[in-house]
Amino acid sequence: MAAKLEVNVMLKSGQSVKFDRFEPHQAYSATKDGVTLAVAAGCPAPVTITPPAGGRVASVEYNLYSDMRNYHKVIIPESGRWYINMTQMVSFWRFAKDSSVNDVKMPLYIFTGQHLNMAMAFGIIGTSYETEFKTLEPEVNRALIAFMRRLSMQIKRGTKLYPIPDSVAAAKGDGSFTEYLYFHTDADIPGQPWLLTLRDFAEHQKRIYKLPDVGSAGAMAPLWCSWTDWFSDDVTDKVMLANVREGVKLGIRNYIIDDGWFGPGLDNDYSVQLNIGDWEMDTKKIKDMGALVKGMRELGGVPMIWCAPHAVAPHAKCFPERKKYLIVGSDGQPVLTANKFHSLCFMCPEARELMADICAGFIKRWDFDGAKYDLFNCVPNNRCENHEHTHDVSSMVEGLELTLKQIDDKSRAIKPDYIVELKQNYATPFLSRYGSMTRAGDTPYNTEGNFLRTLYVQGYSPFSINDYQTITNDDKPEDAACVVLKMMAAGIPTYSIDFARLCKENKKVIARYNNWYLENIKAFMNYRIPLDGENNVFKLPAGQEDFYFLVNDGGPITLEKSATVLNGTYATNLFVQLPEGRAGTVISYDCFGKQKGRRRQLKGGGFKHVQMLPGGMVKIEVK
């Protein structure tokens, strides 16, 4: 059976209309009970839904039914943070998630085949609002039921809590709106790594809705953050200045004063009362914020500040005056997050203005050059029942987008080159345009998790930033080099290391590769191109030469021109093929940048063996 799509339309009146199943890529049109569905051929295929006169659409279910086959992995609809926990099909049978204000997901399923490349992809391209996803078949009752030999899944646009917003369902007088069906298999696109399928989906999003890639060379610079290696109570102005002083020697440019600069941070025990929301410096840690910012800049660092502008702790001094703008539940009380703070309501225009003013205030008051906006992923997915404020939008996700836009507009009106770090839970293409870079969320001491989460962001933004990686003295220099190269293979190298305790050898490795990265920073503003289905080899075009990154299992490389091969693996053998009739000169370097062995000449045609060192570099000049 060829794949079939079923579309079910739910109206705000409670009426439900189910349309006959049809094949993706083929045109389909029908009218039932006053509802019209018109689908064009191709991919992405426009899908237009028109309700009866005077009606409004509340939600639309897109159910894909396909024959079951053996798949290697599944990349679930995700923001890119948690998909790594559910790549196995056996976990996917119970899949049910939603895209909401605390985790805005890419509405796309990707399945890889036994050949490791994309085998089937199914998604819906539309504006950003609440969406649900779930596996329909195989069913899981008392046991897994797979005898029907079908794999079926659902994308439901609009939820019971947040129906399709008025900005979509009521934008036109007749209530009609258009979204786009995305469906591919390996029959029409053979040999495509899943990351390139995600990128293709995102590029259609950007083209249809005119979403720019936003970033800058300044935001691409190596970054350091005062988080992983410290308890927030211990981060002082002296700690910051000491690490900036050492970090600039290692090629690190951007520095974040992280959570806790204002009082107790989120790493404190739950018994500790938070004051988050007041945004006054804790003078026990930082005597003079303006002086600290100036001192960081004089040492060569770019000072950035951590902030969660929506957060208001119950014991914050500002709580009484901001209570009327908080998200309130059905019990009439402000909703408390798992972190023990409340959230301002994104659907309230006055609350959005307040959040934007908080963020702009860091520039006006202390002259910061950038900010890290955090904890939007902790916002409760509740319907706000606060009757003390008004709502001008009907979707919390839509309100989040307006909030980020307003913050960005106010900040860049003061400093056009302001650097903004967002986190992937709230930085898919519709949202990432309001930041300078998108971070892979919390992955300390987990290089593979860090890599995979950053890799997902590379699917839709070249301005992907690693989580705050640490390197220890238990790591040998080649270990440190592999960690750094694995970060560069997917995004911006980012650290959270107490440099006072790091050995000289590992500092030399960090300096070596950070400075090489800075020399080539313009190239890194482009996408990495995976050359295999498991993302072991990446190509990065760099003008006169190409850069190749080997990670995990690595692999052979076929060159088109001169290249630098960066070995983020522990392999010592590289197999490389030069163009027929050409020759190349090979020079190998260790992780410190020291040349190892003599120059070697290679002839084109067929794969040739080259020795390399773990964490090292091989330069091949093709003539």
Shape: globular
- Measured between the Cα atoms of the first and last residue, the distance is 53 Å
**Share of β-strand residues:** 25-35%
Stretches where pLDDT is under 50 for at least 5 consecutive residues are: none
The strand count comes to 35
Q: Provide the structure class.
A: alpha+beta
Q: How many domains, as an integer? A: 3
Rg on CA atoms, Å: 26 Å
Largest sheet: 8 strands, parallel
Helix-residue proportion: 10-25%
Brief rundown of the structure:
The chain is built from 13 helices and 35 strands. The protein is an alpha+beta fold and about 625 residues long. The strands form seven sheets. The chain has an eight-stranded parallel β-sheet.
Per-chain topology:
Layout: E1 4-11, E2 16-18, E3 28-32, E4 35-39, E5 45-50, E6 57-67, E7 73-75, H1 89-92, E8 96-99, E9 108-112, E10 118-125, E11 131-137, E12 139-140, E13 144-145, E14 150-157, H2 166-169, E15 177-185, H3 194-209, H4 217-220, E16 223-225, H5 237-247, E17 254-257, H6 289-298, E18 302-307, E19 311-312, H7 319-322, E20 342-343, H8 349-366, E21 370-373, H9 396-414, E22 419-423, H10 429-432, E23 437-439, H11 447-458, E24 464-465, H12 477-490, E25 494-495, H13 504-519, E26 529-530, E27 537-542, E28 545-551, E29 557-558, E30 563-568, E31 573-577, E32 583-589, E33 595-603, E34 607-611, E35 617-622
Parallel strand pairs: 16-17, 16-25, 17-18, 18-21, 21-22, 22-23, 23-24, 28-30, 29-31
Antiparallel strand pairs: 1-2, 1-6, 3-4, 4-5, 5-15, 6-14, 7-9, 8-11, 9-10, 10-15, 11-14, 12-13, 19-20, 26-27, 27-28, 30-35, 31-34, 32-33, 32-35
